[in-house]
Structures are given as C-alpha cells and as structure tokens.
Amino acid sequence: MLKSALALLTLPLGFALGCVGNTQVPPPLPPNPLRSDLNAAPTTAKAAQTIDPYLSPFAVRDLYVAPRSSLSKTIAKLALPQAEQTALIASLEAQIDPSRIASGTHLKAITLHQGDLLPSRVETELSANEILTSEHCGPTCWTSTKKTLPIEHRTAAFAGVVTSTLWNSAGEAGMDQQLTTKLTDVFAWQFDSSREVQSGDRWRMTIDQLFAAGKPVGYGEIIAAEYSRGGNIYAAVRYDTDGTPHFYTPKGDSLRRLFLKSPLRFARVTSGFSKGRFHPILRVRRPHRGIDYGAPRGTPVMAVGDGEVTVAGRRGPSGNMIALKHTGPYETQYKHLSRFATGIKAGSKVTSGQVIGYVGATGRATGPHLHFELHVNGRYVDPEGVAFPAADPVPAREIDKFRLVSNQAVASLPPWSKETINTAAVRRKPVAAE
Ligand SMILES: [Zn+2]
Which residue among 132, 208, 265, 285 is least crowded, i.e. fewest CB within 10 A of its CB? Predict the structure, then answer.
C-alpha cells in the first residue's frame, strides 16, 4: 500500500508534472495518431510548462477507490476532458455497476505512447482474479472488457508450537489473523483456544492457497489440521457434503458439536470457573460461576449454539445481558455487554456462531470483559471437558469416497514443529472480573 502510494506521488502520468531529469532538449516527437484528440496544444501557459514529451512511453498511475467514494468519482481524478470521462464511464457501466465497487479497489491509468497527454487504458481490479480493462478507441470512444483469470490451487503447509498463545505461534509460522481464525474455527467445538491452549501444544495444517497469474490471491479452506494438546491429538479433515465444507475426524465422525467451546473468537481468560475466589470488587471470597473473557470493548460475542433469546436487557450487576434457551436442558448467558446486535430481543431465534452482542463493562465489572455461563437443567456447568452431542458422521453411502479424501488430506500434512520449549508458561493475572 505504502509503495503504491509512493508510486502515485512519484510516477508521472503523461500529461501531469513529470520530469525525467534530462536537461538536453531532444527533437520533437511525432504526435500519437491514436490520441490526436488529446495531443492538441494545451490551452494555458501553466499547462504547457507541465508537459514533458519525453516521459517514459509507458507510464502507470495507481488510484484507489476511497471509502464512501465510487468508481466514477475515482475516475474523475484523472481529469479527463468531460466528454472522454462520460464515454469511459458509459463503457464501464455496460459491464458493471460502478456504484457497487468496493472501497480500496485498485485502478491503473496507463499511458501507452510517448507524448500522450492522457491515459489510453484504465484497468480496474474488480477482484483478485477479475480485471476490467477500458481502452481508448478514438475521440470520446472507450470500450471496456472484463477478463477473469483462472484460479490455480496449491497446497500451503504451516506448523508451529505454542510458547505463549496460539495466536503468537501462528504469527511466527507466517499466518495472518484470517488464516489463524480458520484453524481455531475448525476446532471451535473441541476446545476453547483462549483458555484450553497451553505452552508446548503443537499444531500443523495444510490449506488450499489460491493463485491468479502466478500471484497468491488468498486462501480457500483448510484441507487437514492436527492439534496436539496434553497427550491428545485432535485431527480434522475437510470433506465437502452438499457443496459446503465440513470437518470430520479421519475416521468420518463430525467435529461439529451442539455448542462452540467459546462465545468469542479472540480473547483471553481472565478468570476461570471456580468454586471459590477472592472477589475483586466485593472483596469477599465467593464462587465464580462462569468464565470471564478479557477482550476489548466492542469485540463480537457469538451464540455458542442454536437457540431462542429469553432475556436481552439490563439486569443489575450483570449489566446488559442475554440469555439463550437451547435444545434440551441447556441455557447460556452473556453479561456486561456494551450493546446488543441488531434484531436481538426476547423471542428472537439465533444460530450457532451468530453475533448477538458486543463486549462491554456494564453492570458490576472492573473493565471490559464477557462473563459467560452455561447452565444444564438450571445449574452452572464448566463447558471445559463437557462432551456435547455430535452432529451426524459422514453418510454411510459416501464412506469409501471419504476415506480416499481423508487419506490424501492426512498425507498432505507437514512434519510437526521441532521447536523446543524452554520457557515456562507465564501465569496470567486477572485484569477484569465479575
Ligand atoms: Zn465473571
């Protein structure tokens, strides 16, 4: 981004600024026949000074659609004569809706011939592999064509060992937040990545990496992943049923459970479930029935399972709280929220993973955090270690096909990380509670 911004500042566009540092005056160049409409002498003395006919014959100017702007407004920055601009936008509109182009979209205005005053080609990157090319075809004539580059799939492998948090180990392995979330989401029903991860845990995974024209353009879905934790290995392979990815054990059992292990994707546990602890505000020893997740104000809070909202309102020391009634004997509660998600009120139906509210510090709280409770038959239960019912395994009629996919997926995994742990896990202090 920074490089592109610099390019924007330093790369001259045909008609603008630009000086190649050449003090000798070279012979005049023949006008560009394609651009005779634009090669006319500039009308002001100021413009005449800015034109350098000895620019590189191929100059590129980078532009980006600003937030709350549009493709048309971005093109206006090229300062084309009005009739040219109208023709260019009309040719774009024949292919796409310019008002629906995302902010940040990259445009290249390209000057193809030496001496050109204005760009002859504008390339709009609609997506990682879709380019809309607009060519100047004569006075007030532009044609736009959309080209889709084929996506090539390659397998990328990552492995790591946890020394502080899973997030740090993934970062050290070269994974960004989006990629790390894919890993934690696969095991979101098996363990809580904020409190059930320990120093010394090892993980490895392979994922579909996408390329267009030889350039990496993003990631698809995880192919296989393993997480080794306290002598257990959690294994996942992807198998697509009904066109959507599902994760199973290599034997074909579903990883999906009735409840996610955590209502937050990014958090750390500041106070775990316990029968007795010293209360930081009331200054008495009393049981902590629930889990406190420290997270910045505004962090999205997810429903851990499908259910119905029974409470969404302010409740004394609990602050803004949500209670969900799930199937069977289960209920979950989410407290101290800064606010509720749109449409969340008593009687609303929610689905597993749906954002229902946002972390806050309402009610009796020393700082922004989520207090989360699971109730079974009206009693508090620590979700850690509870085996919730699993979703359906791979259908029997597909099991042979599944085994082939599963064997290949497991074989694609890289070796485990060989890194050794020499730092003891740091005990974290609670910072926010109740
Ligand atoms: Zn609490």
Answer: 285
Q: Are strands 291-294 and 285-288 parallel, antiparallel or unpaired?
A: unpaired
Give 293 Cα–ligand 1 centroid separation in angstroms.
8
Q: CATH number for the 268-381 domain, one of 2.70.70.10, 1.20.1300.10, 3.90.1720.10, 1.10.10.10? A: 2.70.70.10
Supply 409's token pair. 């997926």
H-helix or E-strand spanning residue 406: helix 399-411
Q: What's the gap in Å between 365 CA and the centre of ligand 1?
A: 8
Question: Six-digit token pair at 287?
Answer: 């049981």
Distance from the alpha carbon of residue 412 to the mean position of ligand 1, in angstroms: 42
How buried is 340 (Cβ within 10 angstroms: 0-12 exposed, 13-18 middle, 19+ buried)? Answer: buried
User: For the chain, how big is the Rg over CA atoms in Å?
Assistant: 29
Rounded to the nearest angstrom, the distance between the alpha carbon of 155 and the centre of ligand 1 is 42
Task: Enumerate helices (H) and strands (E) in the chain, giving the number of each.
Answer: 7, 23
Q: Please report, for residues 141, 150, 151, 227, 425, the alpha-carbon distance to residue 132 in angstroms, rounded to integers and kept in the order given.
A: 16, 15, 17, 43, 52
Contact between residue 215 and residue 178 where contact means Cβ atoms under 8 Å apart? no
Least confident of 40-49, 111-120, 390-399: 40-49
How would CATH label the architecture of 152-256+391-411?
Roll (3.10)
Each residue's pLDDT tens digit, 309-332: 999 999 999 999 999 999 999 999
